[in-house]
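User: Show me sequence and structure for the first protein, then do the same for the second.

Assistant: Starting with the first protein.
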Amino acid sequence: MSKFLTKLCVFAVLVIIVDKLFYPILLVTPQLEVDKRLERVLQGEMNKDIIIMGSSRGARNVIAQQLEDSLNQSSYNLSYPGSNIEFHKFLLEALLEFNQPPEKILLVVDDKAELLPSSSIKFRYDRMYPLLKYDFVIDEMIDRGEKSTLAKFFILSRISLSNFDLRKKSFGRLDTIQAAGSMPIAFQKSGIDWQYGKNTSYNIQEEVPEKLSAFKAFQDQCLSASVELVLIFPPNFGDLNPKFKERILQLKKDQVSTFFYDADNPIYQDSAAFYDRAHLRTKSASIFTEEIVDYLKVQ
């Protein structure tokens, strides 16, 4: 019996030693990333007056540096293309956990995917995998079933195949990030159907319960932290869906304010102002950002 226990102890020690050999991978992978925004949040380096959150429509359409220059308030864009409200909620929790609460959060809502199913708007696990050395990230991934509880104790349970890709990452044409976090696009995508849209359909029964819960929790967390939350409705190349607008106004808390783009501005009916049907080009994004500036000045 004692011999068995001895072998078991030796085996356990060997497992621990081998497991620890992979620790340098956790340290190296964050250094290979070019998008450092989430890590800055986790390191407590995101103490700003104004934070913008959302998917690509927040990243492309709102110029954080312009807000900062015009309002004389430090501003930063934490919008991630392809991210959903559940990911925004995670970002908010990290922001409030490790940083001073901002004065304002501008949440850019997406009429096609804010609460409805989407194949392109997801929880951005890929932004989390390079940062698996942080317990806050691991805890979230365990809670979401992406990692087992063993990840709390064993490095090999934390890392994935993507962590073994030790090539230095670089920005592409669409994902270059400005100093204040925004990702505007100067050019226009080819092959777009530029017929002006007039979508009026919205089925509440199709809403994803997890998204709906995250949207409500996002508001509650802002209010609990005394953060002023503004829901931003950006332009499409088409009319704002009135049923989506009605639904968001129905769900928002009384203390939460809303900003709607100037639908009478002819620029938003000009296809030349858009990269594609949902994203503005840099010059028109600056015009939209100026509308937000004017709103915040008198709020």
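Switching to the second protein now.
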Amino acid sequence: MRRSLSVLLALTLFLAFPIGASAQSWFGGLFGSGGQDGSFESYSPSSLKFDVGYLFGDRGVRNDVTVKGDGKFFGRHCIRHEFPVQGWQLGATLQAPIKDDLGVVIRGTWLIPAQPKTLQTDDNVTSTAIREWSTEIEYYTLEAAMVYPVYSPFKFMGGLRFDSLIANFGDPVRRVDFSSSRTRDGMEHTYNVYIPYAGLAVQSGRALRVWMIGTPILRGQVKTRETVGGNRSSLEWNCSSFSSSSFVECGIDYERNLFGGTAGILAKWTSLCTKGNATFQDVTAIGVYEREPIDMSVRRQNILLAAQFSLPFRSPW
């Protein structure tokens, strides 16, 4: 929670810094507005937009690990952990012109998560064990994008998003078998992923916008750390090179003028997938011991429904 609050404070201070609005032509709203002849009006200079909504993602994350099992430690296991990333999400977007028709969008989000129980299953070929965990989630995103009008009503978008998710699990309860489970067991999943994306937006008048962005290339780190019985030793794996990955996001927003600014609604669907290889490690006070190779995959899907409002944003200089 302390890390999330620090990120939110830094984001607020950053977005509060004024940016000039001297460009002659601008992409209006988040993606812009085009004239009938393909030109782009400068009716909307720099603006600061906020959105508040609910992020839906019941069992939105599915973390699969297959321990190949060469007999060194576990034997063959298929471990699946499904947990939600959902709750109230706060977002802030700063948009500003740079030169001519080129604009920049800087955005950050922070989740106030719901903390439901989650399930972990362990299939060791001969039997399946299930246990339930208490869950604490920290999730935020930071991104910067460039927007350029290709031809009315189409705009090209290219940007980089940092997506950070930390999920802590504790107080496990056995549901089916899981004789190895202890009440003081703990687990942490960490996903820090850089998403370089590109996409296209379509503007209908000044009110309705539809967009889609995506990429087949993700960079970052996915890791898991599990402690058994409150011991200092732990079982860990870390994947920093993905064999395959994908990211797709589709969205639509509608807004109208209100009290000198705008107000509207936002809806979007996001999907993120990664696959890779790693090695289970037994980390003790004596040293680190490599155990068995694993195949891992992470899939996440979320839907956001939000209300949004924006204010004109001009430099005082």
